[in-house]
Amino acid sequence: MELTAVTVLVMVAAIVVGASLQRVSGTGMGLVVAPLLAVLLGAAPGVLLANATTTVSALLLTLAVRRDVEWRRALLIGVFAVPGAALGALVVGNVPASALQVLVGAIVLVALGLSSLAALLGRLPEVRRPWVTPAAGFLGAAFNTTAGVAAPVMVVHARLVRWGQAGFAATMQPVYMTMGALSVLAKTVMTPVTTWTPPWWLVALAVAAVLVGIAVGGVLVSRVSASAARRTATLLAAAGGLSAVVRGVLTWG
Question: In sequence order, which residues have a C-beta less than 8 Å from that of residue 47 and are 6 or more positions away?
Fold first, then answer.
């Protein structure tokens, strides 16, 4: 796969923006990066690289907010993320490239629609059932492995169980780190999701972009509200998801 200077520049910019938004609001990396990389690189390699960058950014943010993480809840979500990641890897490995790109874009748009509907409805009914958090872990990991977006599922889950923003934002970092690592591992081990491997310099550039984005987010965190950051991530993700659907349809067959 040939990488042009423009493609690399757009990828780096997206990673910086995604990491910045994640630093401010607790979510944003996968939402912004996954659909765009799916358009630039193809669905399977694009989402795989997005999973990797999400893992790195979430790891770094976990170190910063580790004292506020609700580790028991993070562990519960992580355990049920394992079968979800496996299911997502099976889908990726058995769906043709163009269809997969449409699927990635559609999942992004549907997930965003669900989380936006939850926001419009305001206070959702409280659900205190033992299956709610495990289900969120399973679905979040399946969405993350297939399309690189777990955040909408986790946001709806937080609203259903009345999870406070501070604990949610901190705990999502090890959750996203776990889901990202599981997604990369599942797709690497279970199925040859792509014949393209990113060159070492692109991986190094992506990691550097994550560091820059987190630094920028650290500056913005006292100036930009978490809700504004989430709205920005949602708009960018919607544009990327729509682009992925259109490109997949145009290249179908």
Answer: 34, 37, 38, 92, 104, 145, 146, 147, 148, 183
